[in-house]
Design goal:
With 171 residues, the chain is an alpha+beta fold. It has 2 domains: 1-74, Beta-grasp domain (Ubiquitin-like (UB roll)); 83-151, Orthogonal Bundle (DNA polymerase, domain 1), CATH 1.10.150.120. Helix content is 30%, strand content 13%. The protein has a 5-stranded mixed sheet with strand order 2-1-5-3-4, covered by helices on one side. The longest helix has 14 residues, at 102-115. The relative contact order is 0.15. Mean pLDDT is 90; it is low at 155-171. It is an enzyme of class 1 (oxidoreductase). This is Carbon monoxide dehydrogenase small chain. Pathway: Alkaloid degradation; nicotine degradation. InterPro entries: 2Fe-2S-bd (IPR002888), 2Fe-2S-bd_dom_sf (IPR036884), 2Fe-2S_ferredoxin-like_sf (IPR036010), 2Fe-2S_ferredoxin-type (IPR001041), Beta-grasp_dom_sf (IPR012675), Diverse_Oxidoreductases (IPR051452).
Length: 171
């Protein structure tokens, strides 16, 4: 089937098998390997991307379901050579560790902050409950989302742009 999908702001046209999962389309066809595949059963969340602004696990979405829609992957967070405040916060708060879950955690966190710019710790934990991290214990991930929320609270428009100088890990 022929599909047209906008990924990270770029329109792509491709022929795909009807059974191709979005995760494999992104990784193999578009070479956007930031979307990790960990389980193919929606258990781990490493493959989380945004589909029309909503967090979805791309291992259970067919590429044909993205036809005519917009997808944002972890690669779409960086703008004009600047890391997104979430990416900076994950680095500063040591929320990366092995990094396998990081793309999915970043995208789920991004979606959460789009809906709730200043979530509580409980809301962050609930918002990330569909994403599994096997090595950090989650505390630093929660701290990173809190830090990013503080950084973004003064930002206008879409949650992208320069990183504020306050709200560092020492706060």
């Amino acid at each position: 089937m022929k599909i047209r999908v906008k990924v990270n702001g770029t329109l792509y046209e491709a022929d795909v098998e009807p059974r191709t999962l979005l995760a494999y389309f992104l990784r193999e066809e578009l070479k956007l390997t930031g979307t990790h595949i960990g389980c193919d059963t929606t258990t781990c969340g490493a493959c989380t991307v945004l589909l029309d602004g909503k967090a979805v696990k791309s291992c259970t979405v067919l590429a044909v379901q993205a036809n005519g829609r917009e997808v944002m992957t972890v690669e779409g967070l960086e703008k004009d050579g600047q890391l997104h405040p979430l990416q900076v916060a994950f680095w500063e708060e040591h929320a990366l560790h092995c990094g396998y879950c990081t793309p999915g955690m970043l995208m789920a966190s991004y979606a959460l902050l789009q809906e709730n710019p200043m979530p509580t710790e409980e809301e962050i934990r609930f918002g990330l409950s569909g994403n599994v991290c096997r090595c950090t214990g989650y505390m630093n991930i929660v701290k990173a989302v809190q830090s990013a929320a503080r950084r973004l609270s003064g930002a206008s428009g879409e949650a992208v742009g320069e990183v504020a100088t306050s709200g560092t890990a020492a706060d």
